[in-house]
Amino acid sequence: MKTIRTDVLIIGSGFGAAAPALRLAAAGAKVVVLEKGPPVGTADFRQTSDPNYILKYIKGTAGDHLSLTYAEALGGGSGFYEMVSLRAPSPVFDQVDESGRRLWPESLDRRALDPYYDRAEAMLHVSQIALEEVPKTGLVFAQLMKNLGYSVDRCRYAVRGCQGSSFCVTGCVYGAKQSLFLNYLPQAVAAGATIETEIEAIALHPLPAVRQPAPARLRDVPYRYEIIARRRTGTRETIRYVARLVILGGGTVGTADLLLRSRPNLPFLSEHVGRNIAYNGSVKVAAVLPDGFPDGDMFTGRTHPGMISYQFFASHGITVHAVKALPLMLVSTAHLRPEARSRTSGWWGPPHQDLMRQLRHRVIVLDAFGLTPPAATLAIGERGARTLSLPVDAELERYHSRVKDVLEAILVQNGCRLVQTDFLDKNLQPQQGIHFSTAHQVGSCRMADSKAAGVVDAAGEVFDYPGLYVSDGAAIPSSLAVNTSLTILANAERIADGVAARYGLTASRPGLRPPAPGRSGDPGSRS
């Protein structure tokens, strides 16, 4: 078996991995990045709903009341997300659990993350969408809210020169969306990092040196961890990587999966691995616009409709936006039917045909992201299969009902006609009871002030395993009520700075500078 030695081994190449790769390589460390998915770039993308193409990159894990979606490719989800880049509102960091304990470490709040938000936004060229670029569906949403005296804001996006093609989630063929393979990752390679794709880390082992006191400088730190990895194509060879530091950035599912499978080798690992997954509590409601109301357009303009409302954040802990979807995604995730029709007969016949004719221009879908508790659990079964579970208690049922009432009231008070939405399981059958689906899962290895409450400390270091870090969404302790990518990236920037400082790495190379003092305001977000 071939052995490769490096200072820093990073698992993953998405929002939680790209910043440490760049910053530590720029500071002089020898960095190797392992990405499970295939290499991908602008030339590889297609404007299509072909499921064979989409499923090459987009993966999922489904459970009883929750479904998680994520990407496996160079750059992680950055090639396929809607490029919405919002800071988490300040109250997000003050959430507490049922016992009154703060979910986030005491040292972390919006003010602490603001300098790193600044840095992440600069790297991704984040800016607020111009009014003339807001898609028709976003303008319709804004009008619905304005009619009731509610506020909306134009969103902020990681994009330069958007063409409004409406295929953001299949990859931007114009190179406008600021995916990580356009900025962080090539800069990391230029700084000396090595990035390997289609290699899957399958086991992590601590070496005896992990229990030795760590010197202050990285070059003096002994090799402390071994990762066994396997190529997923070609020779499918097994490779042994040995590193002084290991940073796990494979995402909420991928990082928890690796640690759970490696638990026999990590006897002091926290019991919280795989637990406390937060999911932004997405609730969706659809309706037909009233006569005389301007048309929307489900299939043109950037995929995200461009507007968000914080109107109900203080009262309900939610943000509200409209939704657009590619036809394949729509038919594979939900059945829409006229309100008065039964759950089965409503899928067929003239009323349903009429609804489908109106879908593109006259149907509006509202979605709310909320501060639902981090209650989902990912586990590995006896035969190695993942299981995902979310307990539904009375409080979660009340949340779902209360939020659905808010969304329906917005539509009904504007004269819209509600459309019943049955969300589908993997067999295309209606889900039973409450079911949440999200691409914004976080928290399976959450940060905390003690091992009794989480998996890693505020610096991202795994309790009782020095030199082993988690820097991706798995470390984020709570729902954010907004898209998670920018917060994951900002936190990864913060963790990378901490690692550099801890091991005597300097900012002698370009790209590793202390962040400027944070702004007190939050562009594109209320507080």
Comma- or semicolon-separated keywords:
527 residues, alpha/beta, FAD/NAD(P)-binding domain, Cholesterol Oxidase, domain 2, globular
Radius of gyration: 23 Å
Largest sheet entry: 7 strands, mixed
Task: Supply the CATH superfamily name of the largest domain.
Answer: FAD/NAD(P)-binding domain
So, CATH architecture of the largest domain? 3-Layer(bba) Sandwich
Overall body shape: globular
Low-confidence stretches: 508-514, 516-527
Mean pLDDT: 92
- Helical content (DSSP H or I, runs of 4+): 10-25%
Q: What oligomeric state do these chains adopt?
A: single chain
The first-level CATH class of the largest domain is given as Alpha Beta
Helices, by number, come to 11
Q: Give the total of beta strands.
A: 21
Through-space gap between termini = 53 Å
Describe the structure.
This protein is of the alpha/beta class. The protein folds into two domains: 2-125 and 170-274 and 441-502, FAD/NAD(P)-binding domain (3-Layer(bba) Sandwich), CATH 3.50.50; 131-159 and 282-371 and 393-433, Cholesterol Oxidase, domain 2. The protein contains eleven helices and 21 strands. The strands form six sheets. Strands 1, 2, 8, 9, 10, 11 and 21 form a seven-stranded mixed beta sheet that branches. The radius of gyration is 23 Å and the shape is globular. It starts with a strand and ends in a 25-residue tail after the last helix.
Write a brief caption for the model:
The protein is α/β, with parallel strands linked by helices.
